[in-house]
């Protein structure tokens, strides 16, 4: 198989993805000498072993599988040279307009048009496919939120080459979703030690469903036992069945409380995650769910009565101004709609909110009307508003449409960004910026394989194509890219990224699935491309790097939103360390808050509220 002429469109932990023709893609397995495995003997051996097994496994792959299982179509082989004729990948259908299953568990996606009922419908569809695979003698094995694609109420299952069937076992696992009954209980973290089975697939299904409904998995939160003898590491909690329901686990603030779920579904989760019940997930638990909104407190729940409000009792009005220690908190935008984008530009807070069917700016200007969709992207540039969907970005000046741009996409994400004075976008592999006489060229990037952001003075981005990963910096208003940024190894499948700017620094974050673990990393980049610091941590761990969102750059420091309040970090000696905490901000901050620095204080923006914090 010759890939030089093929368009790269994706990258996973074990393979690169190329477009072969409309609707058909090639999954090309990484060889042991792939740059992603450089300096990693264990990963190189794993790649070698997988390729050896695929020579027998893929020709024996079962046929006549459920229609939403993306199975191999044709096998790809090495064209010439050493190893000629060996299987190196396969072609498969490409599901257009779909999002990874993980999107259902991300709060911002759910605020933008994905309802709790649509989540239930998606899992009803997924349940049918899981049953169909089991009837065909197949076990999914490494069943996680990255091997499902959601399109409307349909879920398509991908990464089928790791399926378990016949004499072929699935040996890969994801710590967050692996059945703990198949793991060595004496270890410090889940480590697969027994073969998968149908029951383990249903365990993963239940974990995925819970995560998608509540924004927290069965072992989320922070375990804080009073007894020193009871303390265990976060990773070890599944092995001891210490779930998020445990009374000594601090429930995550951004999560929806489990009390919104009906009793029979809650009981099922308790039995699966605490009492090791396995077996097919009961269909009535999904078909019997009926969601409603409380008229008093607006809470969406699936119970006969609101779990928060007593019938007939008026809701308690939230205080507009609250003082806690050194912090004064003032509500700037109450719960009237959904905050789509916010920025502090030109000495004032600017935002775009969705109220009813109106896209409304902070001054009351109605930019446009219409339905809110999960894949839409929004940015603010002074009085301008940028709204994108797919390959189209519309630039509004006030309520008037000023410009309509055709832009590249990365998956379903429209590639554009904005600061106070300008906006940048990728178009047919060219990075451009808006100008009075029309868009102007900055430099060449890879269409569909690039991510970039711009601050007030410079921009940062990266692109990847096959074996190539490049970081670059640029001036948002001038021609030229500096691609000398020395990125640390970016192994595995990137599942999220973000970037925060001060005038002379960019803090770039990314999260990747690497083997069975999810790792968050951060680097500090200067306008000349120099990298000052680097740090990494397990995703969802306690601390400032447990998430890659909720940050704000100020000078040479970064403020981070955590469930314990705001934490300040700085780069030091090539690393990144915590330098200060602001515990009095705890009542007003959670990990899902966006932070903005203004002249009057610090703004905390959540999905439905904006709060101004003044710290004395």
Task: Offer a quick outline of the entry.
The protein contains seven helices and 43 strands. By secondary structure, the protein is mainly β.
List the helices and strands and how they pair.
Layout: E1 7-11, E2 15-21, E3 24-29, H1 41-57, E4 75-77, E5 87-93, E6 99-100, H2 107-111, H3 116-135, E7 148-151, E8 154-157, H4 198-214, E9 222-223, H5 237-240, E10 249-250, H6 263-274, H7 284-287, E11 292-293, E12 300-301, E13 321-324, E14 327-333, E15 338-345, E16 348-355, E17 358-361, E18 366-369, E19 377-381, E20 384-389, E21 392-397, E22 400-406, E23 409-410, E24 413-414, E25 416-418, E26 423-427, E27 430-433, E28 440-444, E29 450-454, E30 459-465, E31 468-474, E32 481-485, E33 493-501, E34 506-514, E35 517-525, E36 531-538, E37 551-554, E38 557-562, E39 565-572, E40 575-582, E41 594-597, E42 602-605, E43 610-615
């Amino acid at each position: 198989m010759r890939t030089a002429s093929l368009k790269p469109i994706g990258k996973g932990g074990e393979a690169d993805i190329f477009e072969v023709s409309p609707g058909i893609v090639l999954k090309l397995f990484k060889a042991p000498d792939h740059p992603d495995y450089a300096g990693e003997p264990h990963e190189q051996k794993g790649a070698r072993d997988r390729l050896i097994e695929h020579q027998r496994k893929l020709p024996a792959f079962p046929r006549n599988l459920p229609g939403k299982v993306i199975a191999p179509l044709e096998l790809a082989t090495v064209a010439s040279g050493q190893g000629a004729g060996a299987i190196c990948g396969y072609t498969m259908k490409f599901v257009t307009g779909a999002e990874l299953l993980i999107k259902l568990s991300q709060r911002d996606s759910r605020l933008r048009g994905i309802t709790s009922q649509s989540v239930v419908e998606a899992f009803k569809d997924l349940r049918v496919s899981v049953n169909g695979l089991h009837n065909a003698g197949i076990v999914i094995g490494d069943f996680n939120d990255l091997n499902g694609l959601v399109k409307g109420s349909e879920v398509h299952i991908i990464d089928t080459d790791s399926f378990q069937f016949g004499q072929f076992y699935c040996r890969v696992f994801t710590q967050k979703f692996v059945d703990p009954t198949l793991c060595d209980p004496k270890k410090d973290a889940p480590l697969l030690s027994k073969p998968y089975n149908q029951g383990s697939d249903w365990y993963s299904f239940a974990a995925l469903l819970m995560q998608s409904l509540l924004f927290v998995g069965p072992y989320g939160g922070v375990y804080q036992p009073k007894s020193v003898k009871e303390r265990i590491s976060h990773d070890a909690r599944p092995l001891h069945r210490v779930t998020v329901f445990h009374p000594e686990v601090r429930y995550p603030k951004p999560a929806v409380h489990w009390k919104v779920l009906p009793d029979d579904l809650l009981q099922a989760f308790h039995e699966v995650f605490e009492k090791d019940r396995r077996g097919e997930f009961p269909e009535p638990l999904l078909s019997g769910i009926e969601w409603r909104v409380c008229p008093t407190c607006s809470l969406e729940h699936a119970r006969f009565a609101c779990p928060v409000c007593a019938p007939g009792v008026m809701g308690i009005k939230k205080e507009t101004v609250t003082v806690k220690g050194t912090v004064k908190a003032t509500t700037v935008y109450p719960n009237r709609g959904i905050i789509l984008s916010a920025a502090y530009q030109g000495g004032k807070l600017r935002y775009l909110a969705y109220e009813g069917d109106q896209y409304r700016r902070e001054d009351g200007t109605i930019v446009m009307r219409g339905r809110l969709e999960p894949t839409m992207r929004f940015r603010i540039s002074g009085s301008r508003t940028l709204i994108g969907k797919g390959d189209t970005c519309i630039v509004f000046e006030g309520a008037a449409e000023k410009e309509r741009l055709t832009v590249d996409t990365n998956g379903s994400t429209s590639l554009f960004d904005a600061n106070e004075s300008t906006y940048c976008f990728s178009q047919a592999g060219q990075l451009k910026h808006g100008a009075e006489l029309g868009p102007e060229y900055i430099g060449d990037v890879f269409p569909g394989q690039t991510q970039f952001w711009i601050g007030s003075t410079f921009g940062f981005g990266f692109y990847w194509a096959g074996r190539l990963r490049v970081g670059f910096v640029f001036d948002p208003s001038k021609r030229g890219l500096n691609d000398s940024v020395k990125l640390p190894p970016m192994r595995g499948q990137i599942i999220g990224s973000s970037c925060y700017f001060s005038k002379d620094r960019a803090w770039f974050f990314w999260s990747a699935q690497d083997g069975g673990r999810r790792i968050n990393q951060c680097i500090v980049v200067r306008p000349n491309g120099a990298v000052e610091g680097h740090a990494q941590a397990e995703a969802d761990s306690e601390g400032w790097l447990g998430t890659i969102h909720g940050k704000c750059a100020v000078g040479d420091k970064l403020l981070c939103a955590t469930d314990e309040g705001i934490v300040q970090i700085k780069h030091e000696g090539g690393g990144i360390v915590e330098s200060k905490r602001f515990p009095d901000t705890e009542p007003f901050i959670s990990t899902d808050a966006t932070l903005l620095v203004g002249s009057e204080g610090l703004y905390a923006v959540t999905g439905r509220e904006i709060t101004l914090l003044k710290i004395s």
